[in-house]
Amino acid sequence: DARVTQTPRHKVTEMGQEVTMRCQPILGHNTVFWYRQTMMQGLELLAYFRNRAPLDDSGMPKDRFSAEMPDATLATLKIQPSEPRDSAVYFCASVWTGGSLVMEPQHFGDGTRLSIL
Amino acid sequence: SQKIEQNSEALNIQEGKTATLTCNYTNYSPAYLQWYRQDPGRGPVFLLLIRENEKEKRKERLKVTFDTTLKQSLFHITASQPADSATYLCVLHGSGNTGKLIFGQGTTLQVKP
User: Fold this and answer.
1) Is residue A10 part of a domain?
2) Which of A50, B12, B15, B96 is most deeply buried (CB count within 10 A of its CB)?
3) pLDDT in tens, A2-25
4) How many domains, in total, are found in chain A?
5) Which residues of A touch B105 (CB under 8 A)?
């Protein structure tokens, strides 16, 4: 079965450090989403790309977060500088979308569990 | 603002019984609704999608209903098994080609042998 791959699975670092999370979407999928999950807020959409172009990053704190797709097989989410409140599980999801973004189920990776001390 | 409500308390049932999970939403008119399953330490996995013009959708032991008047979806698992124990997420799509999903907080189901 094709899977979305996220690395690292776990990351513990000190406040102020840069954190980079990576996602390899399923081959052939052209839309990639980044989510954050916490106990308090549940799953929240941070940003998403279609055909490597950013479509919406309104859910992301712009001053410290950045998301990119250097190529079709890699999406990155960076936090710089990191803060304790960024501690969460970050998920990447991918899907192939043709004419409509809304109908296809998304395929999720198993997430990066981030702890900022 | 748009809001999705799922039972925050865990649902505990006996193996073989039917589990029914509820999803209510407000200030929203979703064109589609999905249900996902999430196991501890894993990402959500898609289960079923239902459109606003569909009343009911079935897949094996799973059944989803969608009542746009009540603004409610019900998710049923018949003949439940301990392996069905997980958190189930209700997910709404808006109309329009935005691709944005809104997730409920999820309801944890525990099926006891």
Assistant:
1) yes
2) A50
3) 899 999 999 999 999 999 999 999
4) 1
5) 42
